[in-house]
Amino acid sequence: MEPDQNYAxxxxxxKDGTSKNIDMDVAATPKDAPASNGFQWVHVHGHREQLREAxxxxxxxxxxxxxxxxxxxxPRCTPIGNGAIIILRGVNLNEGAQPEDMVSIRIWVEQHRVxxxxxxxxxxxxxxxxxxxxxxxxxxxxxLVAVFALRLADRVEPVVAELNEQVDGVEETLEIEDxxxxxxxxxxxxxxxxxxxxFMFPQRDALTTxxxxxxxxxxxxxxxxxxxxxxxxxRVCEELDSLRDRAQIIHDQIMDERAELxxxxxxxxxxxxAFFLPVGFLTGLLGMxxxxxxxxxxxxxxxAICGLVFVIFGIEYLIFKKLKLF
Length: 326
What we know:
Membrane topology: Multi-pass membrane protein
Strand order of the largest sheet: 2-1-3-7-6-5-4
Family: Belongs to the CorA metal ion transporter (MIT) (TC 1.A.35) family.
Protein name: Zinc transporter ZntB
Distance between the termini: 67 Å
CATH architecture of the largest domain: 2-Layer Sandwich
CATH superfamily of the largest domain: CorA soluble domain-like
Radius of gyration: 35 Å
Order of helices and strands: EEHHEHHEEEEHHHHH
CATH class of the largest domain: Alpha Beta
Transmembrane segments: 267-288, 300-320
InterPro entries: CorA_cytoplasmic_dom (IPR045861), CorA_TM1_TM2 (IPR045863), MgTranspt_CorA/ZnTranspt_ZntB (IPR002523)
Helix content: 55-70%
């Protein structure tokens, strides 16, 4: 689906894992069937104004509508009454997009209803729809949130694994590749991992908040599913931490090698300058345009000075060799 398309769907989901696709107009009307034997999931997608109009027809509080249609969102969980606003993020796997440009899914969850929305397409939504249509629907509203989190983690794990492989490649080619190219590649990896980490840690905290909030309609089985989702997101966070540390170590190694190369170059320049410093002093002294300069009138003066210069070079060579500067 293109990012500028808008669509909506709704399901009545029953406790036996079956589901029924329903019309959006029917979903906007309170019903007893899902309330007594499951829950209802409504999802809308589009621009902010389209979302606002669609959510308003779901009889949601304006505070909830404003939170779900905010321009900028970060992963969080905000309990309101007997429900909660949950904002989650997933990697952007749309064509031509960067995975770290993460896409948000905004959720209102209560005992018998889940209303979700998004501005950009998210592959995890398609995964959940596939589960429902294949007869493996989540049994409760809380389970649906856990499934969202798990599918988002499923999608981000290959991206993190790819970043780890890129770091492995950088380590293997560190000795043979051009350092400037390696540094640019490493900078891209670090940027991607930092952005992912910036959203995944709050996502873990949001799921933990929803887990421990103590809603009476969340069963022990649902809590175990939420804990599994938290564990998966935590593992992703730990992988991102490890990736950041590895990238930092490689960066430090590159900077150390660069500093060592500069030190070697400075040592060579220092030795060359030290070699010519006494000779430069001697030639400068003899080049003064004053009377009494030695050998000024001698036909062998130039040869004598050249011989003295070579003697000085020889003495300096022996001194530098003894000091192990070569």
